[in-house]
Design goal:
By secondary structure, the chain is α/β, with parallel strands linked by helices. Helix content is 29%, strand content 26%. The longest helix is centred in the middle third of the chain and has 17 residues.
Length: 231
């Protein structure tokens, strides 16, 4: 292992040799076959499979809502729909069977879109945690599920804690958003899980700002681009 950050988020294909420099790597499971996952694990890297818990990028399905994510185009779902629950649990089981060492739970902040789905979402998280071999489970945000969420995961990621991508490039959040994020971050250490920040930056100055700010709140910071294409 090198002095690389403790985790990398890479949504591209291949690059197994570079990914092996990291203790953990969050990957799109459809891009990696068992031999590649075995190579990573043999090198000491824990590959974590990406799972979306409240948005569906697939073809039309009965669990999908009419509304879509304006940034990425995926359909919002009725999280409590039995078909969706089985779909996600099937993805989790398939990832474990393929050789993933853990799971990355994304699109957890439904309190901002469909807060009525929070109980069903918490049930889904608990069911994923119960999948045999689920390994290291990392949640992206999910602050509306705290404190219960912390009992089912090993780590929490604060995506876009200090810096973000915009239509005009990369920039820090305005002061009022930074303040709000700080208030949330101040509470996270009490839950006793690993804490990470994922920030988006394209300049050394912005990246340094994000790293220094994350460190103030006890978070290990990862810097990437909008497409999460950096290794």
């Amino acid at each position: 292992m090198s002095d690389a950050p403790p985790i990398v988020f890479y949504y591209g294909t291949g690059r197994v040799a570079e990914l092996a420099d990291y203790p953990r790597a969050v990957l799109q499971p459809e891009f990696y076959r068992p031999p590649e996952l075995h190579r990573l694990r043999a090198a000491g890297t824990e590959p974590l499979a990406y799972l979306s818990l409240s948005e569906d990028q697939g073809p039309p399905a009965p669990w999908q809502r009419a509304e879509r994510n304006p940034d990425w185009g995926g359909a919002f779902v009725h999280v409590g729909h039995p078909g969706w629950r089985e779909h996600v649990l099937g993805q989790a089981r398939d990832a474990v069977d393929a050789g993933f060492a853990g799971l990355f739970l994304d699109t957890l902040n439904v309190e901002l879109t469909f807060p009525e789905d929070l109980p069903a979402l918490m049930e889904l998280v608990a069911a994923i945690r119960a999948v045999p071999g689920s390994g290291y489970v990392l949640a992206n945000r999910g602050f509306g599920l705290l404190p219960e969420l912390a009992g089912h995961v090993d780590g929490i990621l604060f995506e876009s804690f200090s810096a973000r991508w915009t239509a005009d490039g990369y920039a820090p959040w305005p002061p009022d958003i930074l303040e709000g994020h700080a208030r949330v971050a101040e509470e996270l250490p009490r839950y006793g899980v690993d804490l990470y920040a994922l920030d988006y930056a394209d300049s050394p100055g912005l990246a340094d700002f994000a790293r220094r700010r994350a460190a103030l709140f006890g978070m290990q910071c990862v810097i990437s681009d909008r497409a999460l294409s950096l290794v």
